[in-house]
């Protein structure tokens, strides 16, 4: 389960950074890197969304600060 948490956390960070780039510079890194593969772009967005749900649902259990 730890590997799933690590992967989900990394995808949430990647998604957050991508949205930051979109908001600040109107630059979508995912589309730039995977633009020629629209199904891959959609898969990345779905995985980031699912990762956010997983992290949100398990955060209290996994976080050393919040679980105190």
Helices and strands in order, then pairings?
Blueprint: H1 2-25, H2 29-34, H3 38-62
Helix pairs in contact: 1-3
Could you explain the architecture of this structure?
Helix 1 packs across helix 3. The protein is built from three helices and no strands. It has helices at 2-25, 29-34, 38-62. The mean pLDDT is 91. The chain has 68 residues and is an all-alpha fold. Helix content is 81%, strand content 0%.
- What is the beta-strand fraction? under 5%
**Major β-sheet annotation:** none
Mean pLDDT: 91
Radius of gyration: 14 Å
The best one-word shape is elongated
**Order of secondary-structure elements:** HHH
Strand tally is 0
Distance between the termini: 21 Å
The total number of structural domains is: 1
Pick out the low-confidence regions. none
Structural class: mainly alpha
Helical element count? 3
Q: What helical percentage do the residues reach?
A: over 70%
Summarize the structure.
The chain has 68 residues and is mostly helical.
List keywords for this structure.
68 residues; mainly alpha
